[in-house]
Amino acid sequence: MAEHDTGGPAVAPGGRIALGIAYRGARYHGWQSQPDGRTVQDVLERALGQFAATPVGTLCAGRTDAGVHAFNQVVHFDAPVERDEFSWVRGTNRYLPDDVAVQWCRRVDARFHARNSAQGRRYRFVILEAPVRPAIEAGACGWVFRPLDGDAMRAAAAHLIGEHDFSSFRAAGCQALTPVKTMRSIGVERRGAYWRIEFDASAFLHHMVRNIVGCLVTVGSGRQRPEWMAEVLAARSRDAAAPTFPPDGLYFVGPYYDPAFAIPEHTPAMDWLV
């Protein structure tokens, strides 16, 4: 099912509303609504409908895959009823499951569009490097048992900075109109047994982050040299890259916008996963 069309300015009676949504993706078949109803969009729209006592359709900043988490997924909708901002947060959360929660609400200009107004998006990948698989943090982090070389991964990541055709990192079913995106930064750092890889780009292709991480881990574990990343990028072929890394440990940090829209970029959970 496609997302609801909440584009063009005509609004009323409760105005255009933007929400920040946090969720653990482990139990869901991704963001976008599906016939089985087991997606984040489905549970959010059911909760909004129960609170508003009328159907509510939403449009998000970036669709996430099954198993992917989010700190600050931004959605907007044209409210069918009048409610204050605080009520949209507390009232909707009353009907949401424990692993999905509205973090904030803003009444926005009718020109605001959660996806099209975004100037960029950020993702974070957390990976445990240990001989034994995770237990307490299972589903919340990726896992490698081979030691990783941070300098090698940073050198490999440097080849991806800038505007490029990222076809080598694109899933076969990707619906993006163009594979050309601008990668603004990739940060690779280790904290104890955990690696944190931060991505900031204009937009991302389907599976793009997971495919890049698969290549970074391949380089970090010594199976390829850092320069191989440039060869993969230049090939513009998915066959040139490493296998797609599992979704465990991938977090959509959120989009960012023109400051004039006053859309929050930080939620409390970001301080938990540092």
UniProtKB/TrEMBL annotation:
Formation of pseudouridine at positions 38, 39 and 40 in the anticodon stem and loop of transfer RNAs. This is tRNA pseudouridine synthase A. NCBIfam families: hisT_truA. The keyword Isomerase applies. Belongs to the tRNA pseudouridine synthase TruA family. InterPro entries: PsdUridine_synth_cat_dom_sf, PsdUridine_synth_TruA, PsdUridine_synth_TruA_a/b_dom, PsdUridine_synth_TruA_C, TruA/RsuA/RluB/E/F_N. Substrate binds at Y123. It comes from Rubrivivax benzoatilyticus. Its EC number is 5.4.99.12.
